[in-house]
Amino acid sequence: MTDPSDSTAPPAGGTADGSAHVPGAASGRTAHAPGSAPGGAGTAEGGAGVSGAPAGRATRLRPAALLVALGVLLASMTTGTLAGAADIAPGQVMLELLDRLPFVSAGSGLTPVEQGLLVELRLPRVLLGAVVGGLLAIAGAAYQGVFRNPLADPYLLGAAAGAGLTTTAVIVLLKGDTEAVTIPAAAFAGAVGGVLLAYALGNVAGRGGGTATLVLAGVAVTAFLTAVQTFVQQLSVEDLQRIYGWILGTVDGGWERITLIVPYAAVSVAVLLAHGRLLDVLSVGDDEAVSLGLNATRVRLVVLLAASLATAAAVAVSGLIGFVGIVVPHVIRRLAGGSYRVVLPLSLIGGAAFLVFGDVIARTVLAPAELPIGVVTAFVGAPFFVAVLRVTKRVET
Amino acid sequence: MSDVRAHDLSVVLDTRTVLSDVGLQVRGGDWLAVIGANGAGKSTLLKAVAGVLPYSGEVLIDGTSVRRLKPRERARLLAYAPQSPVLPADMTVFDYALLGRTPYIPYLGRESRRDREVTASVLERLDLAPFAGRALGRLSGGERQRVVLARALVQQAPVLLLDEPTTALDLGHQQQVLELVDRLRLADGLTVVTTLHDLSLAGQYADSMMLISDGRVAASGSPADVLTEKLIDAHFGARVRITSGPDGRPGVHLERP
């Protein structure tokens, strides 16, 4: 009898010695109470590991899917860097970028103004678009997992309303400048505050953190904060355009904004990616997750906090860009399957690519004027989403 | 084989006492069927034993109080399948069954090769191997029930708690699933506790039965002790005729009043 705890595991399927006569049989790792798992009895029961089923059929992030996603992201970022209102030849852009690499010297022939435009405006804009898009999409996927609701988006728990209120307050009351750091700081604090308020309210009302109560608390908090925001906004009509401009969102803002959110982005993304398997466990319901030994409430809290941090970071530097957080994860689900181990990383990459493409359209269609990116994401995203739904017909979920 | 005992189990939900002072005892390798009218507290009892609901009282597996175990340790002893399990439509059968390995995987860890092997061979054993890559949303009722059973078996717990494993199945599939549970029980020495609303079926398969009424134990013992015309009339409000089958097991037949 092979000791199953032996590190030299039998080959896939365990056909060699019939050690696949589960369940209850081999208790090597399982530390059962003594005698709880009878040894060879299982072999009698049609088990015997015949014709070894391959042991690796679990849904995983396939390298091919990852490569495709990264390829799309690369394409979007290249397009974003090459395209723009200013007429700079793509060849020159490439040469200029090469020139910036260490040990490479390639004269691009760009004027200093064009160089500045490329490096100080266009590049950070592409990068910020990628970071914000990735954050919103992965946060949306996480929210959908936690609430087991396909309509959940990163703004569900009051992040948007909270950020809207604090930003409006800073613009109206402090006459704050949308370019300064105060706006991102205020938006960040507002987003986090809105979510915490909803969570606290949901816990008080729901005894034990049921998801339905939490969603309702989010709705209530959003309605309340939006009402206050509207009131503050009406106090100062001359600021309306700036407030509205912030709400519609932009990924313009330079390197400073990227460095501002990178720490929050890194932490939240790392936590979310680590929780893919646990979100899969949660997807079968709280009772079963608990019966499987998982602390469902704690997992939900950790994922919610991380997703809200990601949302707050995105909102802080880009305003309220809709559609990314709700649509990208669904597109990924359709194309690559429903396991959160696949959905989370691919949403991150897919959201990044989607928003970079969206921004390219936003700043080229009406050049030199710009469309608000939120308009583009919905205008382009909705038909795209419908197309994906049509192409990948699946079982109703 | 693990014996299961519980005493003084009480569950209060929203200030309503759903279960009070219930005790039960199942010998290792035996099958206990919990019966009772709708709302009597059968599912609540199973959930309490599974540790899914807060309860007062004690649940003991081989004399060890479940309360003292960590959730993961408990999950290695008790596998639970709820009455209406959530089956995410786009999850594959293999991924779903693999969830049964959760109690063996560290919090942020991932499944080992062994976890996948255990899962693959359970699927094989339940004739589900051809379905491994299929989405749960594309299964028939009987297949779904088998998949849920597979997930519980992958847990490799010596005690199986099944809440109405035959709901929504036609006669043939009811029999198929219960026969399967019985075969597995005998082969692996599993201790099985099920709720069953079909009294005849319960009488056919259970070693012992317990009748719950209004959250209390109304009767318990062998099927012949529990399935009597008097008890069923008193607690289900149903007029039945009890017959004794060739194997001594009681059959329950509805009669028009």
TrEMBL record, chain A:
One of its GO terms (biological process) is siderophore-iron import into cell. Its main location: membrane. Residues 1-55 are annotated as: Disordered. Residues 37-50 have a biased composition (Gly residues). GO terms for cellular component: plasma membrane. It is found in: Cell membrane. The chain crosses the membrane at residues 64-86, 126-143, 155-174, 180-201, 213-232, 301-328, 340-361, 373-392. InterPro entries: ABC_BtuC-like, ABC_transptr_permease_BtuC. It is a multi-pass membrane protein. One of its GO terms (molecular function) is transmembrane transporter activity. It holds the Pfam family FecCD. The keyword Protein transport does not apply. The keyword Isomerase does not apply. Keywords: Cell membrane, Membrane, Transmembrane, Transmembrane helix, Transport. Belongs to the binding-protein-dependent transport system permease family. FecCD subfamily. This is ABC transporter permease.
Automatic annotation (TrEMBL), chain B:
CDD domains: ABC_Iron-Siderophores_B12_Hemin. Residues 4-239 form the ABC transporter domain. SUPFAM superfamilies: P-loop containing nucleoside triphosphate hydrolases (SSF52540). InterPro entries: AAA+_ATPase, ABC_transporter-like_ATP-bd, ABC_transporter-like_CS, P-loop_NTPase. It holds the Pfam family ABC_tran. GO terms for molecular function: ATP binding; ATP hydrolysis activity. Gene3D superfamilies: P-loop containing nucleotide triphosphate hydrolases. It comes from the Bacteria. Transmembrane segments: none annotated. Keywords: ATP-binding, Nucleotide-binding, Translocase, Transport. PANTHER family: HEMIN IMPORT ATP-BINDING PROTEIN HMUV. This is Hemin ABC transporter ATP-binding protein. The lineage of its organism: Bacteria, Bacillati, Actinomycetota, Actinomycetes, Streptosporangiales.
